[in-house]
Specification:
This protein is an alpha+beta fold. Helices cover about 35% and strands about 20% of the residues. The chain is built from 5 helices and 4 strands. The strands form 2 sheets. A two-stranded antiparallel ribbon has the order 1-2. It has a two-stranded antiparallel ribbon with strand order 3-4. β3 and β4 form a beta hairpin. The model has no long low-confidence stretch (mean pLDDT about 80).
Length: about 100
């Protein structure tokens, strides 16, 4: 295991590494889970074996619509490197991620 992977796995902060899935117009349409750490599992209640290799819209139906829309904001960060604070309620996870 690489040092960076060891640090990530022991981090108290939830982490999920994704592959961005683009639509026909090169806009973020979904994400594919590649890695998550233990803190992610605790934060979301989702287990690693339930998410790795799957798309977020399959794991969390409804995450791409309504007030809990997360695909576009995270896509902006992934494609532009811009900073964005995302604080909202996640209906699919039934958790509040606001401070």
């Amino acid at each position: 295991m690489k040092l960076s992977e060891s640090i990530l796995n022991s981090s108290p902060f939830g982490f999920a590494y994704h592959q961005v899935v683009l639509d026909s117009e090169n806009r973020p349409a979904d994400y594919k889970f590649l890695k998550v750490n233990e803190a992610f599992e605790k934060l979301t209640g989702l287990k690693r074996e339930e998410v790795i290799g799957r798309r977020t819209t399959d794991v969390l139906p409804g995450i791409d619509s309504g007030e809990g829309e997360w695909i576009k904001p995270f896509g902006e960060v992934a494609l532009t490197g811009s900073e964005k604070v995302l604080e909202q309620y996640s209906e699919p996870l039934e958790k509040d991620y606001r401070k």
